[in-house]
Structures are given as structure tokens and as C-alpha cells.
């Protein structure tokens, strides 16, 4: 059983290194939050693993800030699977502990897109914190973000279920990452510097070698939206990328009209 958990930026290279080396009856699970954008469109990391290595791949996503789990504070997570429930039950059994409650959901794309897209929402929440806009604004950003997450997931994969957004991988992960995650923290510092310090510089200074997922995911999402002609339908997602790249000021995070999707 193979467990993948690295920053998503490295997964293409890792799969290329593993290509041809995996034989026998192998099952994989990805904890990686992110996507690759190929010429033919977005490719979720579990699909990349499945396609490049020829193996089935489930996902594990949820409201899971690592250092809280490390000290055994209670939390939940979601296993997303396709096909047979049997393998999902095996993963649930493997990961479950009295303080880590894992639920299987038959919606691998929905679960993985929740884990991926909420990192863009967390960047937006960090801008709100850095600008000291307050709790009402932050709640508004989280709500708009969740709505865009659901709308984009369903446009990309019509099979995605509404109920997935109420699992740990959905609304709960939006909340915990917007309150306590690294994406939020670094975006807060970016906004405090009024965009004068780059994300790369802040990441290197604040994360000691760890890699942010939200900034590159915002770029990948922007590319997908632009390619599909959907930019105006997703103002929060597109504004986050434009702020990250310096085309807009952090204040722009509340300066757009929400489109009714
Ligand atoms: N840390 C969290 O709280 C948390 C929680 C849930 C999910 N995730 C997700 O898990 C994934 C990994 O996050 P993380 O915080 O464990 O990341 P991390 O930066 O701590 O790196 C995890 C692993 O990736 C390896 N790695 C680093 N650079 C690499 C490279 N160039 N090539 C190959 N491997 C490399 C590291 O050696 C390490 O073992 C991300 O997609 C993240 O969103 C993280
Ligand atoms: O620390 P972050 O912002 O990468 O978020 C960590 C996890 O994805 C939360 O579930």
C-alpha cells in the first residue's frame, strides 16, 4: 500500500521516477492537496498517480493541521474513493485511531477538489487577516470561497456530490485552514507588507523549507478558468491569483461583485 504525501509541485517528478518500478497488487492513497494543469485541462494528483503508475488511487483529505494531529487532538478526515468500497474500508481501518475519525465517501474528485481549492480560499482569508478587516469579512470570504469551490468542482466533474462539501474535507477544512494553516499565515504576512515582500521570500523565511500549496494552486486554477472562459464566474479565485502576482493590491480581495453561479 502506497501513501503519497509531498507538496503537489513535486508529484509529476516523483511519478516519473517511480514509473515502471511498481509491480504486483498495489493500492495507493494521496494526501496531496493540489492539481497539475496539462494541455488537455486540469489533472488531479490521484489521477496523475493512477495514469502514470497504472494503479488505483484513493484520497485522504480533511480538516487536518498536522501539528494538532501529532499531539493527538481529536479530528476527522475523509477518504474519497471510486469503484469498490472494500479498499476504502481498508484505508479507513488503517488511518483510524480514537482521536482520528475517518469517513469514506464515494466521490474521489469531490473530496480531492475540496482539499485542493480550499488552499486558495485560505490565501484570501490570510489577506483579510493581514489587512485587519475583521471576522465578518473573513466569514464572507470563507462563504464565497466555499461556494466557488462547489461550483468549480461541479463544472469540472458533474459527478461531484453536494454532500461532500459538508464532510471534513469540505467546510471543516475551509474553517481550520482559514484559521490556523500555513497558507493563511504567509498570506497574512504578504498583505501586511502590502505586497512588497514576495510569497517566495516569505515562504522561505516562515516555513523552513516547507512549500505553500495555495499560491501555486491559485495559478493553476486561474489557468483553468482562463482556458475555459470562466474567469468572471469565479471572482474570488481569480482575484487571489492576481494579488499573489502583484497585479492587484491585497485590498482587492473584497473589491468585486459576486457572480450568482
Ligand atoms: N502539513 C499539514 O498540516 C497538512 C495537512 C493536510 C494535508 N497536507 C498536504 O500534504 C502535502 C504535503 O504537505 P507537508 O506539509 O507534509 O509538506 P512538507 O513540505 O513537510 O513535505 C513533505 C515531504 O515532501 C518531501 N519533499 C520535499 N521536497 C521534495 C522534492 N523536491 N521532491 C520530493 N519530495 C520532496 C519532504 O522530504 C517531506 O518528506 C501537501 O499537499 C499538503 O497540502 C498537509
Ligand atoms: O497549513 P496549510 O495551509 O497548508 O493547511 C494544512 C492542511 O491542508 C489543513 O487541512
TrEMBL record:
It is an enzyme of class 1 (oxidoreductase). It holds the Pfam family NAD_Gly3P_dh_C. Its EC number is 1.1.1.8. GO terms for cellular component: cytosol. Residues 107-255 form the Glycerol-3-phosphate dehydrogenase NAD-dependent C-terminal domain. One of its GO terms (biological process) is carbohydrate metabolic process. InterPro entries: G3P_DH_NAD-dep, G3P_DH_NAD-dep_C, G3P_DH_NAD-dep_euk, G3P_DH_NAD-dep_N. Transmembrane segments: none annotated. Residues 1-81 form the Glycerol-3-phosphate dehydrogenase NAD-dependent N-terminal domain. The keyword Oxidoreductase applies. GO terms for molecular function: glycerol-3-phosphate dehydrogenase (NAD+) activity; NAD binding; protein homodimerization activity. It catalyses: sn-glycerol 3-phosphate + NAD(+) = dihydroxyacetone phosphate + NADH + H(+). It comes from the Eukaryota. Keywords: NAD, Oxidoreductase. NCBIfam families: glycerol3P_DH. Belongs to the NAD-dependent glycerol-3-phosphate dehydrogenase family. This is glycerol-3-phosphate dehydrogenase (NAD(+)). It comes from Arabidopsis thaliana x Arabidopsis arenosa.
